[in-house]
Structures are given as structure tokens and as C-alpha cells.
Amino acid sequence: MRYSPTSGWTPEQVALKQSAMEFTRREVVPHLDAWEREGELPRELQKKLAHAGLLAVGAPEEAGGDGGTLLDVCAINEGFMEAGWSGGAMASAFTHGISVPHVHQNGTPDQVDRWVRPVLAGDAISSLAITEPGTGSDVAGITTRAVRDGDEWVINGAKTFITSSVRGDWVVTVCRTADAGAHGLSLIVVPHGTPGFTVSRKLEKMGWLASDTGELSYVDVRVPLDHLVGEENAAFYYIAQNFVTERIFLALLGYGHALRCLNLTAEYVAQRTAFGKPLNANQVVRAKLVEMRRQVEVARSYTLEVARRYDAGEQVIAEACMAKQPAVDTAVWVADQAVQLHGGMGYMRETEVERHYRDVRILPIGGGATEVLSDLAARLLGYSPEKKA
Questions:
Q1: Which residues form the Acyl-CoA dehydrogenase/oxidase C-terminal domain (predicted)?
Q2: pLDDT tens track for 24-38
């Protein structure tokens, strides 16, 4: 009855997925409720993931990673979600997936040694600070400013909704270093403990409870000029490049939540009886299970196809936007149906589908809201009178 897809994977990727599932059952599921209550993951989880060879897959070996393709990362993440990770635990444990690429792709060897290698070894935690209280998905509207003063950058501004920023060790901060607009942004690494840099508030959320999410304040924060990552005023290009993999990751989370909810629900309706027969004896229940399965299959197939095209070197910015939407819409719908088919128990915190129901609601918002990404895809595909982005 349990659906565990292997189509599309090589034997090596099936083995990676199985390793991820075994790790989850041993090191995550027994502790997840406690982590949800505590509001963050223990730092030692990073080290355990590294020792298991699951933390740095996809990162280049020359930067301290384990190598591998985006599809290898997809196989591992599918295993994690199928075995029972929460969305918040995934986002927090793998925040480096959206932060360290900026450094190992665009930084100097010294920056890679200082910041990337410790994170990929599980000894440090990194995060990426883009969103501001007044900008949301409008990256070009960022106002946090960094100005040169001698051999230092002086940073002033605020960021919000920043994953892993409370327990993190350093933050890649997107700052304005030139006039307003997309082409005046730069990436600057700000270590925790730098005077003037504080987590002004740990945010309380509807879901993703195991993820520490912070609001950050920068008041005359001074860091050396060599904390600039890549070229000055080139951050918008770097961000756009890496949004592709972030959106594929969110699509993976989406169909991963849905897959887990489908399996939990199929088991529940086979065991739960009402009016003298199991719930799955009812045609309407079986029809819902089939539709849940169909949506999971469709979302998974397109997400992995876009990942394959990315690995082949194709430009898939629009396709990543389009992959994210059906996958996260599937997550929202399937989680809702899972709660419905669990009945009153589906509304209880002791039932896992309740957590997935809360966790999936952020997915159509994070990494670019669905409405914003649909418009971006329209421009990229030539369906808009506006100039292509």
C-alpha cells in the first residue's frame, strides 16, 4: 500500500534515497516532536548529517562538498520527506543549500576556506538574508545599504523571515551598494557576533516550527571589504542564478509533503472503520486517494524533468518557476485532503498530517510567491509585452 517511487533514479540514486530514509528513521523521527516544541534543530544534527554523507551532496568537492548532481540532491530529499521530515526541519538543516553556493561559486579560495568548508563539514551554520520588512518578493527594492568607509563596509538596515539566522554563524546579506534598482546590489558576509548585528526577534510561525526564523537588525555594522562575495553590484544576477535550485528544492518539498500525506492517509483509511467497514471501502475515499496519487506523480515527474535539464546545462529559470507551482499546489491540496480523511484526528497535534497541513502553507509564498513567479515565467516565455527579465 505504501507508495515509494523509484522511477527516474539510477541504482546509485536509489541507494542515496534509501540512506536518507534510514537516517531519518534513526536520527530524525524520534526527536522531531521535541524539535518542533523547542523551535530549532540541535547543532549536532548537522554533524550527524555530514558523517552520514548526506549534508554536502551537490556541493563541489573542491569546496569541501561531496560532489554529485542536482538529481542526486533530489533523490536524497525525496527520501528524507518520504520517511517523515517536517518542512521546517528540512529548511533549517539545509539552509546552506541557498547560502554557500553564492560563496563557492563567486567567492575567493580564502572565503571558501573560511566559510564554506566548515558548513559542509557540519561544524558551522549559514544563512541567506534577502527579504526585508518592506520588500517581500521584490528583490530589486532592497534598501539595506552598505557603504565603504576606508577598508570596511558599514551596513545599515533590516531583514526578516531569515531561516537559520538565530542559530547561525554567518549570514550572506544582500545589500544595496549603488543606486536603486536590480543592478545596485551586492553580497556581503556578516558573521554573528559582529557589533551592531543582532537577531532582533525570533519569529513565531504557523508552521515550520523546527526552523529558527529571525528578524535581523544592522546598525552601523562594520565588516572588512574582503567580506564582499563576487563582484560589487552583481548580486541580482547571482540571486537569479541560484533561485533555480531553490525553487526546485521547494518543489521537492511540495511533492514530498504530499507523498508522505498520501501514504499516511492510505494506511489510516485502511485501518479506520466507520459504520462497520473500513473507510477505504467507500468509493469516494478511494477516488480521493487516486487523485492524491495522480497529483503527486505529475508534480514529481515535472520537477525531476526540470532538474535533469538543469543538470544537462539548460537554462531553466522559467521551468523552475512552473515546476514549483504545481508541486506546492499539490502539497496544499493533498495535505488538506489528508486532514479531511483523518477526520477529527486530523485536526489533532498528535497526528502527523496536521503538521504537514501547517507546513505546506508557506510553500506558495517562499522562494517567490506563486503570483510573482507566474508573471516572471510569462515574461521569460515571451507572453508579456514587457521586456524579458
A1: 236-379
A2: 999 999 999 999 999
